[in-house]
Automatic annotation (TrEMBL):
Ranges of residues in domain CoA-binding: 78-179
Coiled coil: none
Protein name from the UniProt record: Redox-sensing transcriptional repressor Rex
Recorded name of the encoding gene: rex
Gene3D superfamilies named among the record's database cross-references: NAD(P)-binding Rossmann-like Domain, Winged helix-like DNA-binding domain superfamily/Winged helix DNA-binding domain
Source organism superkingdom: Bacteria
Origin species: Eisenbergiella tayi
Pfam family, one: CoA_binding
Family membership noted in the UniProt record: Belongs to the transcriptional regulatory Rex family.
Biological processes annotated in GO: negative regulation of DNA-templated transcription; response to redox state
SMART domains xrefs: CoA_binding (SM00881)
HAMAP family: Rex
Function: Modulates transcription in response to changes in cellular NADH/NAD(+) redox state.
C-alpha cells in the first residue's frame, strides 16, 4: 500500500472492524454502504470514501462481503497476527483489564501480570499468577511479549517504560497519566478514560444549549 492514509481514516477503522465482526458473528454475509451507514450512524459516502482508500473492498450494486471486509480491515490493523501482552500493575485497573476476556478475540493474548507489591505475588488473576518485577525481563524474552500495558502510578511509569524499551518491547498501552519518551521504534498509545468522560460533559452542554434547556438549581 503506497498511498498515505490519513490518521482520521485509520482512527475510524477499529469501529468498522468491531461492527463488521458483530455482523459476521450474527451470520450476515453482505452489507451495502447504506445499511452499514444506518447501523453505524456514519454517512454512506463517508464509508465509501474510507474504503476507497484501501481499494474499495466492494462491487457496485453488490454490497460488501462482510467476511472479506472484516479480514482485510483486520490485516490493515495488524490483527491477523497475534500479540502477546503483559500487564504491569496488578491494582484495580490492571486486574479489570486482565479480567476482560474480549481482547483475546482480537488476537491480544494476555500472557502475564506483574506488580511490585509482594502481597500480590502469587495471587491468581484469570488463571495467571501475579509475578514479581524481577521476573519480567526473562518472561518478556521467553514468551515473545510485544505489548506492555502500564497500569502503575505515573511516578514509576517513565522508569518502567525505559526498562521495557531495553527489553525490546514493541508497544506500550499507557494508562499512567504521564507522557513517555521512547524511541520511534516503540509505539505508545496513551489512554485517558477521563477524556472520554469530559467529552460526555461537553455533549450534555451542547445538547442543552441547542435545546434551550436551562440549568435548574
Ligand atoms: P492501584 O493503586 O489499584 O494499582 C496500582 C498497582 O501498581 C499497585 O498494585 C501497585 O503495587 C503497583 N505498582 C506501583 N508501582 C509499581 C512499579 N514500579 N512496578 C510495578 N507495579 C507497581 O491503582 P489503579 O486504580 O489500578 O490505577 C493505576 C494507575 O492507572 C494509576 O496511576 C491511575 O492514575 C491510572 N489510571 C488511569 C486511567 C486512565 O484512564 N488512563 C484510569 C484509571 C486509573
Amino acid at each position: 500500500m503506497d498511498k498515505e492514509i490519513s490518521q482520521a481514516v485509520i482512527a475510524r477503522l477499529p469501529r468498522y472492524f468491531r461492527y463488521l465482526g458483530e455482523l459476521k458473528d450474527s451470520g450476515v454475509e453482505r452489507i451495502s454502504s447504506q445499511e452499514l451507514s444506518r447501523l453505524m450512524h456514519v454517512t454512506a459516502s463517508q464509508i465509501r470514501q474510507d474504503f476507497n482508500n484501501f481499494g474499495g473492498f466492494g462491487q457496485q450494486g453488490y454490497g460488501y462481503n462482510v467476511e472479506y471486509l472484516y479480514s482485510e480491515i483486520g490485516k490493515i490493523l495488524g490483527l491477523d497476527k497475534k500479540h502477546h501482552l503483559i500487564i504491569i500493575g496488578a491494582g484495580n485497573l490492571g486486574q479489570a483489564l486482565a479480567n476482560y476476556m474480549n481482547f483475546e478475540r482480537r488476537g491480544f493474548i494476555f500472557t502475564g501480570i506483574f506488580d511490585i507489591n509482594e502481597k500480590l505475588h502469587g495471587k491468581m488473576i484469570r488463571g495467571m499468577k501475579v509475578r514479581p518485577m524481577e521476573e519480567m525481563q526473562e518472561f518478556v524474552k521467553d514468551n515473545n511479549i510485544d505489548i506492555a500495558v502500564l497500569t502503575i502510578p505515573k511516578e514509576s511509569a517513565v522508569a518502567t517504560a525505559e526498562k521495557l524499551v531495553g527489553m525490546g518491547i514493541k508497544a506500550i498501552w499507557n494508562f499512567a497519566h504521564v507522557d513517555l519518551d521512547v524511541p520511534d521504534s516503540v509505539q505508545v498509545e496513551n489512554v485517558h478514560l477521563s477524556d472520554s468522560l469530559i467529552k460526555l460533559s461537553y455533549m450534555i452542554n451542547q445538547y442543552e444549549k441547542e435545546h434551550d434547556i436551562g440549568e435548574e438549581e
